[in-house]
Amino acid sequence: MKKTLVFLLLLTVCTALFAQQKFALVIGNGNYTSISKLRNPVNDANDMATALQSLGFTVDKVLDGNLEQMENAISRLKNRLSIEKNSYGFFFYAGHGVQSGGINYLLPVNANIPSENALRERAVSVQFMMSELNDAKNDLNIIVLDACRDNPFGWSRSGSRGLAMVSAPVGSIVVYATSANSTAADGTGRNGLFTTELLKNLRTPGINVQELFNKTGQDVLTSSGGTQHPEISLRFFGSAYLGSRPQQTTGTQQTQTTQQRPVPDNMVRINGGTFTMGSPANEPGRYDDEIQRQVTVNSFYMGKYQVTQKEYQEVMGTNPSHFKGDNLPVETVSWFNAVEYCNKLSQREGLTPAYTVNGENVTWNINANGYRLPTEAEWEYACRAGTTTAYNTGANISDSTGWYRDNSNSRTHPVGHKRANAWGLFDMHGNVWEWCWDWYGTYPSGAQNNPTGAVSGSYRVLRGGSWYDSATNTRSAYRLNYYFPYSRGDFLGFRLVRP
Questions:
Q1: pTM for the predicted model, two decimal places
Q2: Which CATH number fits domain 249-499: 3.90.1580.10, 3.90.1300.10, 3.30.1330.90, 3.40.1110.10?
Q3: What backbone phi and psi angles, to 5 degrees, belong to 73?
Q4: CATH number of the domain at 18-234, please?
Q5: Which residues contact 337 (CB under 8 A, 6 or more apart)?
Q6: Contact 55, 206 (CB under 8 A)
Q7: pLDDT recorded at residue 428
Q8: Predicted pLDDT of residue 157
Q9: What is the rounded CA–CA span in Å between residue 372 and residue 378?
Q10: Other beta carbons less than 10 A from residue 86's beta carbon
Q11: Which of 18, 272, 374, 477 is the least buried, fewest Cβ under 10 Å from its Cβ?
């Protein structure tokens, strides 16, 4: 009896010792004294604190904080995370934020900043805050900035709106309420638009952090009619749950789950929908085969990254790439090589291969649960992530958007080093072209559901552009129709999807 009691006591102590610790700092600044007041940030902070507490977080809350209060709270969060290495950190800020010289600043409620030069001493640097949390060396830090309102000062030399996009530190996820140099809606209800959607999705049982923010980004895009485009910078590649984990199933349910197989963490769910495929007649660089039409696609999972050389080597036992590196995209692969990889990876993971290959005759079993190439429609839908502009970041490409001729130094680059689109997909513009399932053909007129391309042809479609190409060839709607399925080149790669 005594041994049993001792064992139970030790079990209780060990469970408490190794349980995932969760600490949050929530700041809401709205009642500014020297610049324009904001209606919702205090509500946002109060509601986020309540939501995070319900998920098991120990929450430190600062409402209408001055510089000293904000900096002290950041230090407290860092100290807690430094002590509890087995911990998740969550930083949430709603209020005014500005950028200067690529540095983002969060403004205290008593901000009296007569010039841009005074920002460093009188506001909280986002980059400094992220470095502080990164120094804690804990499991995961999540930073959410609903701080992309219009610059409230008239002295801005750059004239930039919103915040500048910066890369997340390793082991972190940084989420912006809207895209770089853009503004976020303060909301017409109790909360800002972004925070409204985040609060809603935080209540979803068993949702992991990547799904949480991808879903929130998609919901914000939909609610704003495509005008507010959240940004995610992700340098965390594990699986984390802020609340409860998915329930384990037993019996018949367990057998079914085993057959379906979990989707890897390096894939994201793309919720189905209807979009305008193709490009408008006035889009610079447009080709005549980009005729617009309404297309509906079902939900699917897509790889966050182009398939890497390490992944290809592990499955195929060879690496045909010209530019060598584990985290570089695999290239110099034909369409047939990509199909073979899909089938072998499926078999390796106990899935039903999507393709039946008989020489050069390849058929697709659409009911299979294995890996496959995206259709051209799925690729463009995922690339756009709800946008209607030439690129998924706006009308023009930039160095933060993708690798192309002007910034690639004539070679490929490691996957995931440019910012992701709103749905968490990296390198959709440039680096290497991506093989699609479809034969190249003229788009049919009228709306279509889940189109799979022409029934036959000479060329398989490639999408996305590459390090070798001009910016216009990396547009969301651009279609490359020049390569046979057996063609290979150091700019030809692929990414995976699963049903």
A1: 0.54
A2: 3.90.1580.10
A3: -65, -40
A4: 3.40.50.1460
A5: 316, 320, 488
A6: no
A7: 97
A8: 42
A9: 12
A10: 11
A11: 18
